[in-house]
Specification:
134 residues; mainly alpha; 8 helices; 0% strand
């Protein structure tokens, strides 16, 4: 989106993906974590397969993929090519929850004490999806 308004005086860039930091992750609510764990694991397997298949390495070097993605997003392929490939990671890295809470607090979106990662991140479904939970 930024590439469409870069240089326009009515817009300012406030921030983006930190260099080398992946984007992505799977957030589950109580129904997929507790009530229908099989569905939660199946969804994670599909997400992991998508990241590993379509967002590996420098995925924008694949011209057919860029064309497909541009059509899907209804945008110009040249705009997609003008920015680096996204770094995707299907695992939520340790410390990410703390960083997100600090960022929300700094922007005035969150109040109160931060929640410990142990109460906000549950890696058991990831472990099951990749075969480590057995």
């Amino acid at each position: 989106m930024w590439r469409r308004v870069d240089g326009e005086p009515d817009y300012a860039f406030l921030g983006g993906q930190p260099p080398g930091e992946p984007l992505g992750g799977m957030l589950h609510g109580p129904s997929l974590l507790n009530d229908d764990v099989d569905a939660g694991v199946a969804l994670l397997r599909a997400y992991i397969r998508t990241v590993d298949t379509h967002f590996a390495a420098d995925h924008k070097q694949d011209e057919s993929y860029v064309t497909y993605l541009a059509d899907l997003l209804k945008t110009d392929a040249a705009i997609l090519r003008s920015t680096p490939s996204l770094r995707m990671d299907w695992e939520i890295r340790r410390g990410t929850a703390d960083c997100l809470q600090a960022a929300y607090r700094a922007q005035g979106v969150a109040e109160g004490d931060s929640l410990p990662e142990s109460s906000t991140v549950n890696r058991s479904l990831h472990e099951e999806a990749v075969g480590h939970g057995r």
